[in-house]
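Follow-up to my post from last week.
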Amino acid sequence: MDWGFIFERTFSAMIGPEVMVYALAAVGLNVHFGYTGLMNFGQVGFMAAGAYGVGVSVFWLGWNFWVGVLFSFVYSAVLALLLGIPTLRLRADYLSLVTIAASESIRLLARSRVMQPITGGVEGVNQFAGPFYDLSPFELGKFYSFGPFKYLGRDVWVLLVGWTLLILVTLMVRALMKSPWGRTLRAIREDEDAARALGKNAYFYKMQSLMLGGMIGGLAGLLQVVQKASVQADTFNPVITFTIWTMLIVGGVGRIWSPIVGASIYWTLIVFVENTLRQLPDGTRASLERTIELSDFNIAMLRFILVGAGLLLLARFRPQGIFGSREEMALDRR
Amino acid sequence: MPKWGRRAVIAAFGALLGLGAGAPAMAQVSDDLGVIGQLQYTDATGTKVPAVGVDLSIDDVGGATTDSDGSFRIPVPGPGEYTIRLDVATLPEGVALNDPERATLQAKVSQNGDQRVIFPLVFGEGGNQTTESNFSIRRISQLTLEGVKLGLYLAMAAIGLSLIFGTTGLVNFAHAELITWGTLMAYYFNIYGLVATFGFLSVLPPPFGGGVNFIFATLLATIMGGVLGYVLNRVVFRTARSAGVSLLAQMVMTIGLSIFLRYVFVYFFGSRYRVYADYASQRANEFWGVELTSRDAAAMVVSIIILVAVGLGLTRTRTGRAMRAVSDNRDLAESSGIDVERVISQVWIYGGALAALSGTFFGFDTVKWDLGTRILLLVFAAITLGGLGTAFGALVGALIVGVAINWSTLFIDTELKNMTALIVLILALLLRPQGILGKKQRIG
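User reply:
Got it. Predicted complex:
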């Protein structure tokens, strides 16, 4: 059992690309749910919109990568508009139904044969992120070590840009939530009727929040496909949405830094458990095999079993998350 | 050993079921399966010519284009029954299907290897019929029939979901897993039988000794659906309600539960597609111009009987009336002496059993671990269209969604037909958010 390897993987995961992408998506979800009380169960749909914003622009329209980046925001904002118009005047659960349905439909549409000339179908889009990596000051194929962290040069570049964006977006959200606009959102979250009685147009505020959070989710999707250097419809599986929910609730809903903290804790835990199970000494493994099957496939599935169980137990016993306070926002306040 | 099955039962119920031993070994399944074929036609001079560049596809699986020999191969994830569709528009000029109605074929892929399908092609005559036949009465009535079939199955799944919402205000995202549970249980009992659960039965002859007949397995699966419904309510949601967990938190709990159950299923069942031992593939019978296998006809009749029974139960029996009363106005029902928790428990039991039954029917083509999740969108559309919380609304909504989805294939690719449900859902919310049978009230 190679503990050095396990810890190297675990430390690298702590601030790795997955944490960065999921934390950014969770920041968007925090704007939706934490500050406005919108039940968005389709955050992965916004990520897909952002990803295909660049994928479609480069693959189908043959535009420049950087123009595609702009379209990532356009796509996710338009998606928010389309989903918001029929649902935001209704009770909270209708938004959840429509967003979960839409996010799955986007995935099916993107991978369909009809859309293949536009989205690349099941194979997706590859080799579009060249212009981004051309700017890299690091050697793309070389390993860089910083203390306990070790990444490929291309990942160092993605992480540098990604974390800068993540912190900038988080600071922007903090500034916005301290502004009168943000206070109105929280007023709507606490009591929509009271906010309406004070003359606030709750519908428009909710729509703006949905669009803002959706665009942040789109940025997360964009960073994800740039890091993977491929746009694949099936990576935008609905279960990603609920991974993000789990992260957000772990960190504490409605708190500024909770998406980052939650994503990091969650992902570190997953990577540690998975790598430890894969590296079990033969004796232990054999004795475990007698009760539970531990193929690589099953170990990979374990991640999702943990997501499900975690979400269930957190929502039931600690809706304010590990670090959240019930004063600001808890899942069970309304 | 039926590892997934026995362990799934153990994991879910523990002491509830006895531990058994001894069951047939799982057959070795080849990983590399596909549907193959070669398209060719005889041209005017009498030579055989391969049809090049013809698109063929299987819903949710993939597609292929014929190469220079006219050959194609579509890899499939596992044994099962697949519908292969030939895109008539991509046929070479002047070439048509011998029978224009047969642009889709059913193929049952066994675990032994590739399955060959044959699309007979003709050159010359019949070339123009294909575009007309797209909207023929025959095709539309066939699609309508398929739509009603889908609607009936959906209705059984949707009624429970709608009543759970009505009685508790909870949108149960884990309902999809109750559907999958039904399929998996039917498969388990059909293949391994009671003996895998109750080992002492092994001395008895079949049906008790080995896998049981599918009809009996369906019955057992339905019972297991009710059991799971009861357990989920009793262990998870009833305790949450009494602890005062808010509805939104409970909704997130159902999501967590859904993911948990789904991946527990795949952990034990594997991601392969499988088929029931009985009635897996049947030749369609033709009557009144439409085709239907006797298996599907029987399933439809059973669905209709069950749905009528549910309707009568809801209107004529004390339990059913209590369910509707709680669904209508919980406080009023409670103050008039109805034991609300008891009614909720009954709703979960019947809802779970109905969902499991619909799951066994949905599993006719292929048994898979994410079957419920794939149709959850349709169930949501059905209950929203019909009116959240109304049992009869769910029935009406399900039938409309089923037919609308099948009709939509007249205009769009079959691969995308389930997206019609999303459009129905959004239109319903825009035009009549309370649903067809829902009462007009402020829901914003």
